[in-house]
């Protein structure tokens, strides 16, 4: 038996399963609870409910230390630290929906033997409210900073571990610190409200960098500059850094849109108007739609045109389509009268539910055959390995809009494409 402290995890979504599997890998005996029986049964068979590199191997390697259940009593038995990893989606008002968090707290009400470790992203002040509601329960904030597609690597090699605890809960915070100690990374011990704000502020800042470079890209198109060169020159300044300075068609996924809106709403609820975040959100929404203008420039009209979307997930190495640019693009293209065909290497099942009017192809080449134009939406590595000269011959008109600046303009031009990207000069076929 391992001398690592056993833990419980509530909510087996993306954060919950990564947390459970990685702590099991470190030697903890883990019980993970979810209310969905089908999900629990699939996990007991070793089947992950989503695609994440390395997850299947973790589940297989740690079958003896990973236990999945729908029974709260099994979760609580012999476990002091309980990680809350339930979803906190936005409500119609823009506030975070804390109903699932409230349900977890209700299930622990009256317990002085357990410590609730909040991994779910919650507004600053949530921990204080929970402690007033359940004063006997120890409470620690420990926000996650995982990126889909690299979540296992991020967990095992963190930049920092943030642990927020108020007076009286230092013992639970110490136990949590000991769990994370083997992973290294800078330790930030702070109060609960500050820990909660760190997560929201970090994601809002990264989203701001993305919207900023996208605005710069749009100006570059007007003045003939190349945004990749501009970003490279900016990023070499240590005060700025190169991360998140890659122009494209905007951010998506489960974190950035939700957390930016949540921080904006949190500020608004206090009477403060967070004007910068309003602009970040607006720029991101408009950026997705700029692709339509680029297509119309080359095709004159989209009515009756066949447009291929390459990639549907919001980023590579995940099948997550939450707030994906592909959803907006598909809807706008269909609204303009186009026929949409798409390909993604791992998101077919989710796409068939979310985009029922879109034809799903079995390969990128199949998607582009007979197409009037293609849009690269997700920078899957396989798209960089295509024989583009052969693809061009199969298209009705070889027009490609690279929404991620992923491909080489000269390669596409030499292959016979009219190549549009974001913030870079248009490349037209060699004569």
Written overview of the protein:
The chain is an alpha/beta fold and 431 residues long. It folds into two domains: 7-190, NAD(P)-binding Rossmann-like Domain (Rossmann fold), CATH 3.40.50.720; 226-431, Rossmann fold. It is 42% helix and 13% strand. The chain is built from 17 helices and 14 strands. It has helices spanning 14-25, 37-44, 55-61, 72-76, 99-108, 126-133, 151-156, 170-180, 192-223, 227-235, 256-269, 275-299, 325-335, 348-354, 364-368, 388-394, 409-414; strands at residues 7-10, 30-33, 66-69, 81-84, 115-118, 138-141, 160-164, 186-190, 306-310, 339-343, 359-360, 373-376, 399-402, 418-420. The strands form three sheets. Strands 3-2-1-4-5-6 form a six-stranded parallel β-sheet, sandwiched between helices. It has a six-stranded parallel β-sheet with strand order 11-10-9-12-13-14. Helix 1 crosses helix 3, helix 9 packs across helix 11 and helix 12 (275-299) packs across helix 13 (325-335). It is globular, with a radius of gyration of 23 Å. The protein starts with 6 loop residues before the first strand and ends in an 11-residue tail after the last strand. The model has no long low-confidence stretch (mean pLDDT 94).
Task: State the end-to-end distance.
Answer: 71 Å
Mean pLDDT: 94
Q: What percent of the residues sit in helical stretches (DSSP H or I)? A: 40-55%
Major sheet summary line = 6 strands, parallel
CATH superfamily of the largest domain: NAD(P)-binding Rossmann-like Domain
- Could you tell me the strand content as a percent range? 5-15%
Low-confidence stretches: none
Overall CATH class of the largest domain: Alpha Beta
